[in-house]
Amino acid sequence: MTTVDVVIPCYCYGRFLKECVESVTSQDDVDVRVLIIDDASPDNSAQIAKELARQDNRVEFRQHGTNQGHIETYNEGIAWARSDLFLLLSADDYLAPGALSRAARLIAATPGMSFAFGNAILIYDDGSRVAREPFGDALRDRTAVLSCIDFVKAMKGRNIVPTPTAVVKTAAQKSVGGYSHKLPHAGDMAMWLNLAAEGSVGFIGSAQAIYRMHSRNMSHSYSSARLPDIEQRYAAIAHFLARNASSQHHTDRLAAILLRDLAGNASAQAAAAFDEGEKEISRKLSELAKELYPGICYSAPWFRLQLHKAIGQQGWRLLRAAFGGDR
Predict the structure, then answer these.
(1) Which of 23, 172, 210, 283 stands the most exposed, by the fewest C-beta atoms within 10 Å?
(2) Smallest Cα–Cα separation from 2: which of 118, 143, 108, 112?
(3) 58: closest CA among 97, 32, 82?
(4) Is the pLDDT at 112 greater than 70, yes or no?
(5) By C-alpha distance, which of 90, 41, 45 is closest to 66?
(6) What is the Cα–Cα distance from 22 to 9, expressed in whole angstroms?
(7) Which 8-state DSSP code applies to residue 11?
(8) In 10 A of CB 82, how many CB atoms?
(9) What is the pLDDT of residues 127-173, one digit of tens each?
């Protein structure tokens, strides 16, 4: 059977840890090892982790004496991995049944594939559930293999990979290395880009994991900050382009796609900020969009931004009210 190493970083998620670990150890048709790394949690995470390790010899446990942060913890897990495949799974998330075997089959069937990801179910604080399906109906219940350029095009300037669904070929992960301390909020996006440069990317059109979105979820809270989020995505793209400048013969084409799409995102965020009265944020996002991709000034996102400004905040409020939603 395919072997899979699953690293579970944990900080104050003791209440979720058992469900997370058992979602891994109950996976069929793969041989799993689990490493729980508690990053000096002040709750009962360590006690729960010790008990889980005592009950199942496939589960190991490490505890930091002082808090090291998520980047250091992720990289410790990458250094530990030695199996065929590797997954980073936050302690507050958990896998869907059959997730690892589906990923393992797709990777095994596709020589040169670096990683595979899939759909996820988002669970919010109020218990509501929303499907996160990067390709929507187009690839539901289907699989696909994407080249680096196809993956970059599909991203549209955003991170489309739900992290708990990303099963990576360990050899590719070791080749790419760990997460960058310079990218505390966009390290995942840079990682997927770097892995896509190593080989093809697989997609599984099934719900592969359950991803909790709550008030303590760092990536969720950060992505709501418009300007810093765009700036971190820009940093992730720059990191990827610098790392692969000499190895990718189509780096210029990748750069044009990534920066054009991110500029479009920045323009849309500038329009939203303007509508909410955040005029200085809107101005900075507009300037950043032009810096990223000067040609944005001739695009539909830029035209919509100018239209928002021409009509004004009150006008857009009235339009949204009239049409029953955001425009």
Answers:
(1) 283
(2) 108
(3) 32
(4) yes
(5) 41
(6) 15
(7) S
(8) 11
(9) 899 999 999 999 999 999 999 999 999 999 999 999 999 999 999 99
pLDDT of residue 222: 46
pLDDT mean over 169-178: 97
Ramachandran assignment for 266, one of left (phi > 0), alpha (psi -120 to 50 degrees), beta (any other): alpha
Under 8 Å CB-to-CB from 25, ≥6 apart: which residues?
A: 32, 34, 56, 58, 59
Which residues is 149 bridged to in the sheet?
none
User: Residue 66 is which amino acid?
Assistant: T
**Average pLDDT of the segment spanning 254-277:** 94
Rounded to 5°, the CA angle 139-174-203 comes to: 5
Return the closest-CA partner of residue 69 out of 187, 167, 170, 158.
Answer: 187
| Largest Cα–Cα separation, the chain | 65
Strand pairing report for 85-88 and 167-169: antiparallel
Residue 160: which residues within 8 A CB-CB, separation 6 or more? Answer: 134, 154
> What integer pLDDT is reported at residue 324 of this predicted model?
63
